[in-house]
Amino acid sequence: MTTPDPSAEWWTTSDVAAYLGVQIGTVSSYRNRNQMPEPDRTLGRTHLWRPETITTWNEGRPRLGIGGRTADADPRGTFLQVSTALESREAAEKLAREVVEAKLSAGAQIIGPVTSAFWHLGEFGTGEEWQLLLKTHSDRFEDLQAYLTEHHPWNNPEIVAVPIVAGSDAYLSWVRKTVESGEES
Q: The pTM is what?
């Protein structure tokens, strides 16, 4: 992606995507959800924005942190889905039970087997793994990450957190209450 010319009279959807560092489809998604300014001009199916419309909007929009939301975006804070992978269903079940019992995650799902392709110690490989998905709150991520790092059988396990940008109020409140208070819900 090349950076669009800030002195241009108009930016197309492609220019806006390049400026934001996202795919064109993401810009369309922002538009469909009313999360960005409407085009300043539309010619047929081509949407055009003045560069200053986008730069001003971008400077003022909330920045996403580790959990994907700013603290004021949701009074409950930010929710995460954390994933890791293990070599067997049994290992995934064991680790899932441990982190849920420790209230580091409100719940866990195990998916597998999945086939992974990767580089390890300079060699390309493939293998069968079981994916473990954990639901937690950003306040608990560091503790969860430390636990996974310490108890995972691999030296350098995948530990990836992605924000949960939407969900039912009841479910997200349950996640928050479960990992915050340590009470069974």
A: 0.59
